[in-house]
Amino acid sequence: MPKIVLIPRQPVRILSMKGFRIIIFILSVVLLTISSGLLFYKNIFLLDPPTKNQKVNFEELRYTDLQINASAALLRMNLNSETNQLAAQMNRLNELLNIVTDVNKSTPELSSSIGKIQKYFDKKLIELNKLQMGLNELNKAVNALNPIYNELVQNKIKFSVDNKDFYRESLNDALLFISISSPLNEDRLVQDKKVLGQILNFATSPNPIIQRYSGYLDIILKRTKEINHIVEGFNLDTSINKELIIVGKYYQESIEAKARDAEIYLSMIYGAIVLYLLNIIFILKKMT
């Protein structure tokens, strides 16, 4: 009769539910610790201090500048146009300038460029305020011309040059100069001003109506030249084109660097999760 040999069975290590929970708890704590460390790393090394409207593209600064130039030219052409759009653009420009000053000036070139841009737009905002004031004053003078001329007619205040009504002709010269600010039209208005000065000087007591009429012509001459100078200066000034390119390039590189850092951070998070799952699988295999 063959001898039967009994081979003892190897004990099977079965992981209890309590032990499994402890392991899961420990690994979860490890994962939480790693994630907290990564988050701490992200907050210190990957994020800049929070600033208002931090994600605004610096190309908008250049575009807003061009919009302001166009609005200024349009207001010059149409004196009765509303200035609300220009005011909104000026507010946006101020917001963008605040962003420019918050940029980390990491290189001398960048610092110099931002300084020039700040100086350029500070000066432009001053000129824009002058433009708005000049337009308001010019509008009032233009709107007052016909009523005060009618007042001259009603009071029978007349003066003729070459058999023409001088006051009517000077009124037409003023309106023509506003429409077409050529040297010839400017010279005509200047000559009209000289004649008005002579009329006032030769009078025993200067007529207040003529004084007011002369004052309006003076405003039209002065403000039209000033407004033309401001608008032309806006369109001809390209002094910060280079600086805008430098700052725009820096901003784009900054965005790309942050995107790369975000990808690295995300990869580290995925790596931590994978490591966590591998640990669970490894421990389960060892304990079962």
In short:
The protein has helices at residues 17-45, 59-77, 84-102, 108-154, 166-179, 183-202, 208-236, 241-286, and strands at 160-161, 164-165. The protein is mainly α and 288 residues long.
What report would you give on this structure?
With 288 residues, the protein is mainly α. It contains 8 helices and 2 strands; from the N terminus they run H-H-H-H-E-E-H-H-H-H. Strands 1-2 form a two-stranded antiparallel sheet. A hairpin with a 2-residue loop joins strand 1 (160-161) and strand 2 (164-165). Helix 2 (59-77) runs antiparallel to helix 3, helix 2 (59-77) runs antiparallel to helix 7 and helix 5 packs parallel to helix 7 (208-236). The radius of gyration is 39 Å and the shape is rod-shaped.
Uncertain stretches of 5 or more adjacent residues: 10-15, 49-56
**What portion of residues belong to β-strands?**
under 5%
| SSE run | HHHHEEHHHH
Q: Helicity range of the residues?
A: over 70%
Total DSSP helices: 8
Q: pLDDT average, as an integer?
A: 78
Q: How does the major sheet shape up?
A: 2 strands, antiparallel
Keywords for this entry:
288 residues, two-stranded antiparallel ribbon, mainly alpha
What are the SSEs and their pairings?
Elements: H1 17-45, H2 59-77, H3 84-102, H4 108-154, E1 160-161, E2 164-165, H5 166-179, H6 183-202, H7 208-236, H8 241-286
Antiparallel strand pairs: 1-2
